[in-house]
Amino acid sequence: MGKSYKIILGILLVLLAALVFLEANQRDPINWFPSYTKTDKIPFGTYVFYENLKEHFQVNDVNVPPFEFLSDSTHTGTYFFLNQSVGLDEIEMERLLNWVKKGNTAVISANNISYPLLDTLKLTFTEKIRTNGLTNIAEYNFSNPKLKADKNYSFNRDKTLFYFDSLNGKKQKVLGFAKLQEDEPYDSLPNFVENKFGKGKFLLQTSPETFSNFFLLRENNVEYAEKFLAYLNSDQTLYWDNHYKNGKTFYTSPLYILLGNPYLKWAYYFVLIAAILFVFFEGKRKQKSIKVIEPLRNQTYEYTRTISGMYLDRKDYKSIAYKLIDQFLNFLRKELKVDVQKQENYSELLEIQTDNTSEEIKILLSKIQELQRKNSISKKEVEELNRLIIQFKKNI
């Protein structure tokens, strides 16, 4: 390796060491993605809530769609949906309604709940955003005097407030309220309702952020989750939905593990950099270039033109016609597996395998037989034969 290469390599190594140092001392940016996944420890994950939930309930994870899960009639208890959006289709909604009607409980906490379900329960929801400020700090509380806190539970981050704007059912009851921080207490809006349905009930809440890590780990907000769970029967099995989740609990790429671990990530980068340096310094050609030898040209077409020209010059149209016939019959044997000279039903076989009509096939084969019997053939007859063969092949 020459001196100049060593200098360049040294500079690259120094730059690489500086990059590693800066990367190692840089704090990872906060991930505000609303995953609501039980394994996520990011602000909008539900790791804290799920771990506390397991201390008070027998929790079973449901990794399949509600349509598949509810097909088993032996499941009884509480079905807990928690996500930014829960969009049940009509078949899933019908199964969930029938399941609740038998005496079970369905809990749905989402900013956007399936419209067909809300319509069935005679509920509508909307959103509220401040028009005279830059941030929307939402506060939450309960309507039950025994659960209501003296100070509202605050979500200290800009967030649109979703709430139920109409309750038309006779079996509905408001369990919780929410409001924006700057609003007066009488501006509180219902965000948590109970809806009786058959022998069971729905608990619907429009603020899933109240179960996030970010909310529960601030001040005394964990009390909100504890009071919410007071509405659930701890003696029943709680089924935790993992299907309707923004976050993924599985790896979508083999590189996910490598790039997710800082040590493995930099080991991977070092391998790539080493490979690039090797190609740059050592990947040069060590021998003289090999002369490119052009392959022999295929001159079959020119040869054929020469031979055919000889026949035309001699006006030997009979030989040309016979060669056309031989070539066509050989084509039928190889491509269509039809031997005109040995198979009696050759006409039917050709009609089945091609788009030619029986009349067209009959005309072509009659023309061939006619020319084979003649001692002399004209140029016009050769052209007619060639036209019929071309027309036949077009319809294959």
How would you characterize the overall build of this protein?
The protein has a nine-stranded mixed sheet with strand order 1-13-2-4-12-11-10-7-8, with helices on both faces. By secondary structure, it is α/β, with parallel strands linked by helices. Helices cover 42% and strands 17% of the residues. The chain folds into three domains: 3-28 and 254-282; 47-241, Rossmann fold; 313-394, no CATH class.
Layout of SSEs?
Elements: H1 3-24, H2 47-56, E1 58-62, H3 66-69, E2 78-82, E3 85-86, H4 90-101, E4 105-109, E5 112-113, H5 115-120, E6 123-128, E7 138-142, E8 153-155, E9 161-167, E10 172-180, E11 189-197, E12 200-205, H6 213-216, H7 222-229, E13 237-241, H8 255-260, H9 262-282, H10 300-314, H11 317-335, H12 346-353, H13 358-373, H14 379-394
Parallel strand pairs: 1-13, 2-4, 2-13, 3-5, 4-12
Antiparallel strand pairs: 6-9, 7-8, 7-10, 10-11, 11-12
Helix pairs in contact: 1-9, 11-14, 13-14
